[in-house]
Amino acid sequence: MLEAAAAEAATVAGAPRLERRRRLTPAALAVTNQKVRPAYSPIVIAGVVRLVDFALFSFIGVAIYFAYVVPLNGFNWDYVAAIFGMSAAAVICFQAADIYEVQVFRGQLRQMTRMISSWAFVFLLFIGASFFAKLGGEVSRLWLSSFFFIGLAALIVERLLLRGMVRRWARDGRLDRRTIIVGSDQNGEKLVEALNGQVDSDIEILGVFDDRNDSRALDTCAGAAKLGKIDDIVEFARRTRIDLVLFALPISAETRILDMLKKLWVLPVDIRLSAHTNLLRFRPRAYSYLGKVPTLDVFEAPITDWDLVMKWLFDHVVGAIVLLLAAPVMALVALAVKLDSPGPVLFRQKRFGFNNERIDVFKFRSLYHDQADPLAAKVVTKNDSRVTRVGRFIRKSSLDELPQLFNVVFKSNLSLVGPRPHAVQGKLQSQLFDEAVDGYFARHRVKPGITGWAQINGWRGEIDNAEKIQKRVEFDLYYIENWSVLFDLYILLKTPLALISKNENAY
User: Fold this and answer.
1) According to the model, what pLDDT value does residue 9 have?
2) What mean pLDDT is reported for the chain?
3) 389 to each of 326, 335, 365, 369, 384, how far by Cα in Å?
4) Can you list the domains of the chain with their CATH numbers?
5) DSSP category for residue 289
6) CA-CA distance, 387 to 366, in Å (whole number)?
7) Is the pTM of this model over 0.70?
8) How confident is the model at residue 51 (pLDDT cuts 50, 70, 90)?
9) Helices 141-171 and 77-96 sit at what angle, rounded to 10 degrees?
10) Is residue 138 within 8 Å of 60, Cβ to Cβ?
11) pLDDT tens profile 275-321
């Protein structure tokens, strides 16, 4: 009550509104206060191991070939082709033997026996192919045997190192899927027991959430504490890492589920409906499984696994190139800002980042220093007296945004392309943006960007009516659902043209 009264009083007095944060229960705060490290994607780990295996085998085979065969018989491309073919065949055989699983990497005996058998099978396959092709006499037996034993030794050493790394990541919680359960009744208790009863599970249950306060809601579900109500989940997920929200409610409770999903879909997490207690059964392919527990996918976190790697590479490689190309222009703009009015060249402003994280965004200063507005409590309008002479030009041309390349390349809290990071106190008249547009925070399921789909379609600059912010959100959500590297490249290439032809709202 006191916080609400203070916020209202501050608003009436003309001061920036206090940031609204929901108060969590002591049990939930105890979880959010724990130190949590970023997660590693098992899919990416398995993919990197495949690439390392192929490179390792190819290097060993080629090195032995050049060390022994080439000095005696000269160079022959057939050997190189055979080496790459055997390396690729080894990776395929390992895949068929289910060796490329993070849980297998953590073991020892099981992966070693499968690995040795698959490696031996590749060489038997090669020997058989050489025999039928009548090439047996042309293949060096010493090279072949050296390739087998040295390759096997290197593979064992690699897997022992990998096993140590994976076990350390597991201890640090980097491989766990941090999960919350919705529904603290008997269904929730059965679900928690089923998940905890699995061997080598990567599910870490943080607790349960439920709105009910009657006898149907349990204070603990199989040892998992009740952390709060459904409305608390959004705030909880913004204070600690959440990877999965799992509903323990039956499909028959569709009205309750839909009401809850309207609140939770804005989060950058996987949302699933548990089907372990449902009498209605679908085909097995309709389910995704957490161990042996069947679930139905409702929402998936956008841009994950290899997509996230590709976007990171795109941001940092292309961002570094753009930064180098833009450096002379940035130097001239910095000089103009410094000569035009007293104050620093760069300006930091609080903006919304990924998952509502508050980030500092760099811009060239376009307002007079004594009238700076780091929270953007007052929107810049046409003929705004706070804007400097140079500021009007760089704002109109968006040159003031160029320092955000530092955010992309060095701080990694912005992307080149994504929903624009709005100011934390951004308002439509007297309403904050999230109050004016339903589902506004769904824009923050990915990192914000310097440019975006909404911007190149003309939705940039001053927001003075409901349509402008609603259209931005619509275009941003379309971008999130349809992201690809080519889409990013298209938006980036079209941005200069959009800045020239669609800048009537930029002041």
Assistant:
1) 36
2) 85
3) 22, 13, 11, 13, 11
4) 42-171 (no CATH), 176-299 (3.40.50.720), 305-501 (no CATH)
5) E
6) 6
7) yes
8) very high
9) 40
10) no
11) 876 655 666 666 788 888 888 888 999 999 999 999 999 999 999 99
Q: Mean per-residue pLDDT for 35-43? A: 91
pLDDT digits (tens, 9 = 90+) for 368-405: 877 776 666 666 667 777 888 888 888 888 888 999 99
With tokens 């046409």, the residue in question is 382
- Calculate helix-pair angle for 141-171, 42-64, nearest 10 degrees: 160
Q: Which two tokens stand for residue 268?
A: 């950058």
Taken in order 341, 342, 348, 350, is the CA torsion positive or negative? negative
The set of residues, in sequence order, having a beta carbon less than 8 Å from that of 280 and lying 6+ positions away, is 251
Q: Count CB atoms within 10 A of the CB of residue 450.
A: 26
The model's confidence at residue 135, banded by pLDDT at 50, 70 and 90, is low
Q: Which residue has the tokens 């700076």?
A: 372
Residue with tokens 């306060």: 213
The residues pairing with 179 across neighbouring beta strands, listed in sequence order, are 205, 244
Residue 184 has pLDDT above 60, yes or no: yes
Residues constituting the chain: 507
In degrees, rounded to 5, the angle at the alpha carbon of residue 43 between the alpha carbons of residues 82 and 194 is 135
Instruction: Give me the DSSP letters along 416-474.
Output: EESS---BTT-EETTEEHHHHSTTGGGGGGS--EEE-HHHHTT--S---SHHHHHHHHH
Helices and strands (DSSP H and E) totals, the chain: 19, 14
pLDDT at 23: 86
